[in-house]
Each structure stands twice: as C-alpha cells, then as structure tokens.
Write a structure and sequence with these properties.
By secondary structure, the chain is mainly alpha-helical. It is elongated, with a radius of gyration of 18 Å. It starts with a helix and ends with a helix.
Length: 145
C-alpha cells in the first residue's frame, strides 16, 4: 500500500463520525438517516482495513472487540424507541412529540424519539458491517479457508 494511503486511512474515521453525526442530526427537522450514517462509518473502517491490515486496525481500535454486543444494543435501542407508541396505546413507531406538540429543546437542538431510533439504527448498521469486515479480514489472512 502507498505511504499516502497509510497516512490518510487512520485519519478518516474522525471525519466519518462527524459526517455521520451531521446526517443523524439532520433528522431533527427532516427524516434522519441512521442507516446511511452507519454505512459511512463502516466505509471508513473498511478503508483502514485495506490500507493497514487486520492486526494494525484491531490493535489501534480496541472497541472493535465489542461490535457484536454494541450491534445488539443498537437493535434494542431502535426497537425500544419504535415501541414507545405501543406503551402509550398508539401504533408502533409513533414518535413523540407528535405534530403540533411542544418539543423538548437542548439549546437549538430538538429532542424527539425519532432521533433515538436513528441512533440505534446507526449503531446497528455500523456494527454489523464492521463485524462482517472483521470476518472477511480473518478469512483473507488465513488464506480463504
């Protein structure tokens, strides 16, 4: 791999996380996109795997050991936020606050349950794709057996 790729690949994860956060925050006024945000982060990790190799990536990102558990946690968060409406005797995936209701604000950010769903979906997609990357990297290293 070229020196340029080895220098740039480790530095892509930070900007990818910032872009993913911006895509999720967009959901406060429009439909958020946790799926796309998860794919962007997984692509940054994939570039890192290609440029640096499995050992260096897994040594530099110890959080990768927890991707299966984090993926399950993301799934549970997404499902829990989707079923808040059922607890309130409404249809599933009815998010609060509803149209015309007062929105809780944190500075200029509006907090609603749809954002929680997007965050859960982001974690689920990113972790599932990174777990697949880990398995592919192990297969490549072992010679495809």
């Amino acid at each position: 791999m070229s020196v340029v790729a080895e220098v740039i690949a480790p530095r892509l994860l930070g900007p990818a996380l910032m872009l993913a956060l911006a895509i999720i925050v967009k959901g406060y006024n429009d439909v958020g996109d946790g799926f796309s945000a998860g794919v962007i982060v997984a692509l940054a990790v994939a570039v890192r795997y290609v440029a640096l190799g499995r050992e260096r990536v897994e040594a530099s990102l110890p959080i990768l050991r927890y991707t299966p558990a984090l993926g399950v946690a993301g799934l549970l968060v997404a499902l829990a936020s989707g079923f808040f409406g059922v607890v309130a005797d409404q249809a599933p995936f009815t998010h609060a606050p509803g149209p015309g209701e007062e929105v809780v604000r944190l500075g200029t950010l509006e907090l609603m349950t749809a954002v929680l769903f997007d965050l859960g979906l982001f974690v689920l997609v990113a972790c599932a794709l990174v777990a697949m990357l880990q398995q592919l990297a192990r297969l490549v290293q072992e010679g495809g057996t």
